[in-house]
Design a protein that fits this description.
By secondary structure, the protein is of the alpha/beta class. It has helices at residues 36-43, 60-63, 66-73, 81-89, 108-116, 201-214, 228-231, and strands spanning 3-9, 12-18, 22-25, 50-54, 76-80, 128-130, 135-136, 144-148, 157-161, 165-169, 173-174, 192-193, 217-220, 226-227. It has a single domain (3-235), classed as Ribonuclease Z/Hydroxyacylglutathione hydrolase-like (Metallo-beta-lactamase, Chain A, 4-Layer Sandwich). The strands form three sheets. Strands 1-2-3-4-5-6 form a six-stranded mixed sheet. A hairpin with a 3-residue loop joins strand 9 (157-161) and strand 10. It binds zinc ion. Zinc ion is lined by residues 59, 61-62, 170, 221-222.
Length: 236
């Protein structure tokens, strides 16, 4: 049985997925390397058990601790070729493409994203790089597959598990839990959105439909898990 454990660094989620093998999905952000052992202690996971680190997309809040986690665990990094470029060049700024909604509400979201983005992230060479065809994860001890889900960003992927659970990064997220709206009554918990950051809204919707074909429960990069009944209406 696949087991999923969530950890949160500020406003960003990462996950430990345990199957025949154990992997990390997304790295969290803005923590110092010294803080990472405590993250695993709290989950009851030992560093040496983590064999792979899978990254959902090239935005800093999901990949900036890849180097630190790799050094601590010895795990191999698995990512899309466009995320690999980001890990090699280390440039974190200018990677967000904002959808029209983010400019409303006094630009709070835009400002928050720009202010929290560090100029650079620690560079690291990924170990297993794939393209838009995705990656079957069974050979890596995980009962599931990685599918390419562009729209939020060209590099974006989801891990769709055979038990109809998906780790979806930022394809869908809870605005309340992104960070800048936590106290804002206009964005209560469960104010789910697709298109605050997107390269193409229709492409993003297609990607989410693709995830819905294989999953009914969605673990996102920000906020609590979501069920089909909140995600499906967003792509109707
Ligand atoms: Zn994010």
């Amino acid at each position: 049985m696949t087991e999923i454990k969530k950890f949160t660094t500020y406003f960003v989620n990462g996950y430990i997925v345990k199957d025949d093998k154990t992997i990390m999905f997304d790295t969290g952000a803005l923590f110092e390397p010294e803080q990472l052992p405590g993250v695993l202690d709290e989950l009851g996971v030992s560093a040496e058990d983590i064999e792979y680190i899978v990254i959902s997309h090239a935005h800093y809040d999901h990949c900036m601790l890849a180097k630190a986690w790799k050094e601590m665990t010895g795990a191999k990094i698995i990512c899309h070729e466009k995320t690999a470029e980001a890990l090699r060049d280390g440039n974190a700024q200018g990677r967000f493409q904002y959808g029209p909604k983010c400019y409303d509400y006094d630009k709070a979201y835009y400002n928050f994203m720009e202010e929290t983005t560090p100029p650079t992230i620690p560079t690291v060479e990924p170990d297993i790089v794939f393209g838009d065809e995705g990656l079957d994860m069974h050979p890596y001890g995980i009962n599931g597959k990685i599918i390419h889900t562009p729209g939020h960003d060209d590099s974006h992927i989801a891990l769709v598990l055979d038990n109809r659970t998906a780790l979806t990064g930022d394809s869908v997220y809870d605005l309340h839990d992104v960070g800048c709206f936590t106290e804002d009554p206009r964005f209560p918990e469960g104010s789910y959105s697709l298109n605050w950051i997107c390269t193409d809204e229709e492409l993003l919707k297609d990607s989410v439909r693709k995830i819905l074909e294989g999953a009914d429960i969605f673990y996102g990069g920000h906020g609590a898990p979501m069920s089909r009944d909140v995600v499906e209406p967003l792509v109707k």
